[in-house]
Amino acid sequence: MIRSGGGPERLAGADLEDGFTLVETLVALFIFAMLVTAGAFVLGNSAEAARGVEAVSDELQALQRTRAALQADLGQMALRPSRAAGGEERGALTSGDRADGALLAFVRYGPDNPDGEERPALQYVGWFQTEGGLERRAAAHLDGEALGAGALLLPGASGARVQFHYRSGWSDTPVETVPAVLPDAVRLTLTHPRYGAVEQLFLTGAGA
């Protein structure tokens, strides 16, 4: 004998029991919305962290580039006076009013020449504290020309101070003697917006 498993009414009831109620659907949508919101929050924080890491990396690279440029300039310092645009003599190493307001200005050997063009073997350079930060300037010609437009190497740096070391000790200004002598080392102190007080010591060509 074959027995029926139920009529149409039984089948309809089974369909209702296997489906989702409105409350269950709303709860599922709510949970999904919470997951989407949490995911967006995590992604936003990750992007913000990435931007912060990039900013720190850029500032550290700027500090390293500045140190490398100063090291290259001071390590090639030459005991050679030059002449300004008006013809007046500039000392081998000057600072302040005698260097057009530069922290220090001097002649160096061997400026970079990546193009292999005909250029003098000496270059007059100066380092300045400006409103934007620490800036390097160079003259296109050794004599008869002022320092040109600057390159801002360390943005945000402030309170820069330079000291010069001779056999007698440290001096806030270049020591003028006859015959002239170069300092053994130069000390630069400044305030960086992220790293605070920074002090760096460089050997010159005379002290290397």
Automatic annotation (TrEMBL):
Leader sequence segment: none
Gene3D superfamilies cross-referenced by the UniProt entry: GSPII I/J protein-like, gspk-gspi-gspj complex like domains
Pfam family name, one: T2SSJ
Residues spanning the membrane: 20-43
Membrane topology summary: Single-pass membrane protein
Record keywords: Cell inner membrane, Cell membrane, Coiled coil, Membrane, Methylation, Transmembrane, Transmembrane helix
Classification via SUPFAM superfamilies: Pili subunits (SSF54523)
BP-aspect Gene Ontology terms: protein secretion by the type II secretion system
UniProt KW Coiled coil keyword: yes
One of the record's GO cellular component terms: type II protein secretion system complex
Family: Belongs to the GSP J family.
Protein name: Type II secretion system protein J
